[in-house]
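User: Reviewer 2 asked us to show a designed sequence for the structure in our supplementary figure. I'm pasting the structure tokens here. Could you produce the per-position amino acids so we can include them in the response letter?
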């Protein structure tokens, strides 16, 4: 940050007061928000609203934050521009609560122009309501985002320590959502934990079926985290019921962002809804998700919906990054809780075609996997590069601050908490598809503790020797990947080069390349 750069005014005083200002519609009902945007709506066959935005993915290359980037006068001017727009135009303003954890719960305030109230409608369904008492001034928020689509230049500017984000020139709902989740993760790190782009899940099994802690009623619990980029299967696996029968169950707690804390608890962020991808949504592979998306309470964005309301989840007419905001209460695999009491297993989801369906990692290898963040680019990030190999630290495009320190923090946390870590391939192995059902089988048996392990000569990784209900021999790297020795040697070299770019990363993590 430049010391001579002008500072933006304090938004809580510069922005119009949501209760008193004449030009602000404060905390309108969901029904009113939908009415404000009825001219933009196509009503689906389920009775839910569907909208098509001009921007259909995040603008990562147009996003700058005050901690990591050398802010100058033009950056602060973007924030001032957003504030001035809010003062001069009719706005919708919503307050919502992000998180329930006593140490990680935040009041979030979103301003959007009234003609773009559909953004507020979708965003409002993700977080839990929190409003001022009648006739009282609204309490100051912890985080504020002003989204102004009516700008020719796209610019997303973040002041992390002030809790302020200005989104200019984009009408994509994902920008509003991530603006708050980015700050949630930043504050978790400042508190000694680590914000994660991850889904969280609690699996409960009969006593003796797993090696986790007994909760006292004859049932053992296993806490799981899934780290992965959008469209790699994170939501699918987090929400999957694992084909368990009562009293056993698998419960989704969070789908996108949470915070691993030093005591082993995992704080959730979104208490009301989930922002899920819809392309290729299949009732057989994702039954719970499919049913939730079909509910009338859902908001669809950039999904192919015909004039008569017929929905085509296989179509990419608008984009392959079609989205749905679904409600937790209508997702059968979602629990009432959003916080996980303790974590036992962490999974890094990749789509690297030279990786086995699953491999077990040491804490140092897990930290290396965290730093590598290997996957493929998806339409949620950069549609023009979808399908290309990509590395994103922590599979988290929203890190603020030193990335090397994030890797060190992750290693320390999983070591202190004695967490088992795995890398999970949800793509293909040398052209052999790894189905959702294969991943589900692995997850279920890993929870049960029935997987037997062996050292794989081809990869040097610890991989399954046997898994009940799965033919692991069909997924041998040596048998499925042509010229695997050369490809793996090149991959390790690339990984070493990548890890060496992080000056703050501990040496033992650099040396843990697999």
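Assistant: Here is a per-position design you can include in the supplement:
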């Amino acid at each position: 940050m430049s010391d001579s750069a002008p500072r933006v005014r304090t938004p809580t005083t510069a922005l119009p007061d949501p209760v008193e200002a004449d030009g602000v519609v404060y905390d309108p009902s969901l029904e009113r928000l939908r009415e404000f945007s009825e001219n933009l709506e196509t009503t689906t066959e389920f009775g839910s609203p569907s909208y098509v935005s001009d921007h259909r993915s995040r603008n990562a290359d147009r996003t700058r934050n005050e901690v990591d980037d050398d802010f100058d006068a033009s950056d602060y001017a973007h924030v001032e521009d957003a504030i001035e727009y809010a003062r001069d135009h009719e706005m919708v303003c919503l307050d919502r609560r992000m998180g329930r954890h006593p140490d990680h719960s935040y009041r979030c305030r979103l301003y959007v122009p009234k003609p773009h109230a559909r953004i507020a409608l979708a965003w409002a369904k993700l977080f839990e309501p929190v409003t001022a008492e009648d006739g009282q001034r609204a309490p100051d928020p912890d985080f504020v985002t002003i989204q102004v689509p009516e700008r020719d230049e796209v610019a997303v500017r973040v002041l992390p320590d002030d809790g302020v984000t200005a989104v200019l020139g984009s009408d994509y709902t994902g920008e509003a959502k991530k603006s708050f989740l980015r700050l949630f993760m930043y504050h978790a790190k400042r508190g000694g934990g680590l914000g994660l782009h991850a889904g969280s899940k609690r699996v409960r099994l009969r006593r003796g079926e797993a090696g986790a802690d007994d909760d006292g009623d004859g049932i053992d619990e296993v806490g799981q985290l899934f780290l992965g980029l959008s469209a790699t299967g994170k939501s699918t696996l987090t929400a999957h019921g694992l084909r368990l029968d009562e009293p056993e169950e698998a419960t989704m707690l969070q789908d996108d962002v949470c915070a691993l804390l030093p005591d082993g608890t995992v704080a959730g962020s979104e208490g009301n809804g989930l922002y899920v991808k819809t392309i290729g949504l299949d009732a057989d592979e994702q039954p719970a998700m499919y049913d939730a998306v079909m509910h009338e309470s859902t908001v669809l964005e950039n999904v192919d919906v015909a004039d008569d309301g017929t929905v085509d989840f296989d179509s990419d007419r608008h984009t392959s990054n079609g989205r749905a905001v679904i409600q937790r209460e209508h997702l059968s695999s979602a629990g009432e809780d959003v916080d996980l009491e303790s974590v036992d297993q962490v999974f890094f989801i990749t789509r690297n075609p030279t990786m086995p369906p699953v491999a077990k990692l040491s804490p140092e290898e897990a930290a290396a996997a965290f730093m590598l963040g290997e996957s493929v680019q998806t339409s949620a990030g950069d549609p023009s590069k979808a399908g290309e190999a990509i590395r994103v630290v922590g599979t988290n495009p929203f890190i603020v601050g030193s990335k090397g320190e994030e890797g060190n923090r992750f290693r320390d946390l999983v070591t202190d908490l004695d967490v088992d870590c795995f890398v999970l391939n949800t793509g293909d192995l040398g052209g052999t598809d790894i189905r959702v059902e294969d991943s589900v089988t692995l997850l279920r048996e890993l929870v049960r503790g029935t997987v037997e392990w062996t050292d794989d000569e081809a990869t040097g990784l610890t991989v399954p020797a046997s898994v009940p209900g799965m033919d692991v021999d069909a997924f041998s790297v040596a048998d499925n990947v042509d010229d695997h020795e050369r490809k793996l040697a090149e991959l390790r070299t690339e990984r070493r080069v990548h890890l060496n770019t992080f000056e703050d990363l501990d040496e033992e993590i650099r040396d843990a390349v697999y």
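For the response letter, you might also mention the following. The first strand starts at residue 24 and ends at 26. The radius of gyration is 23 Å.
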